[in-house]
Design brief:
single chain; Rossmann fold; 5-stranded mixed beta sheet; alpha/beta; 5 helices
């Protein structure tokens, strides 16, 4: 775990029972590609850990998430919370409707994941990575890439 992560972020990223990590974002919007980066770099070897890349359509993985019956769901996405580029922060689910999480998604995240949370009774956490750029280009900023690599390294160490 990164020493720069807050205790809240460390707790949010820590698995609990059957843990499902869902990454979100678009590789075509610079730092919005944090989620796809994590998804392409993480390989879980434990059967109690699972990863789904929802891209920009998280509603398409909601039923898969519900059917897997996780104890904890961790959402990872680019966000704008006026932090420094690459900073990680836990974002309350109810706050993501207030334009906190980058809205390149086709359906409101709070609606989709409120249903997942209710149907599974799982703990649900949203970890946002402060975007430095959302330009229409491929490739992460150095700060976002560093954050995504730290998250990936952490998950791969489990």
């Amino acid at each position: 775990m990164s020493r720069s992560w807050s205790d809240e972020v460390k707790a949010a990223l820590a698995p609990k029972g059957r843990t499902l990590v869902i990454t979100l974002g678009s590789e075509l919007r610079a730092d919005d590609g944090v989620g796809p980066y994590v998804s392409s770099h993480v390989r879980f070897s434990r059967p109690d850990l699972r990863l789904l890349d929802a891209g920009t359509t998280p509603e398409n993985v909601a039923q898969t998430a519900i059917d897997w019956k996780p104890d904890k769901v961790i959402l990872i996405d680019a966000a704008h919370f006026k932090g420094r580029a690459g900073e990680l922060r836990v974002i309350p689910l109810e706050a993501i409707n207030q334009a906190t999480v980058i809205s390149t998604h086709s359906f409101p995240l709070s609606v989709t994941f409120s249903v997942v949370k209710e149907d599974t009774k799982a703990e649900l956490v949203v970890v946002g990575v402060q975007a430095g750029s959302l330009d229409y280009r491929e490739g992460l900023s150095p700060e976002a890439e560093r954050a995504a690599a730290e998250i990936s390294d952490y998950f791969n160490s489990l």
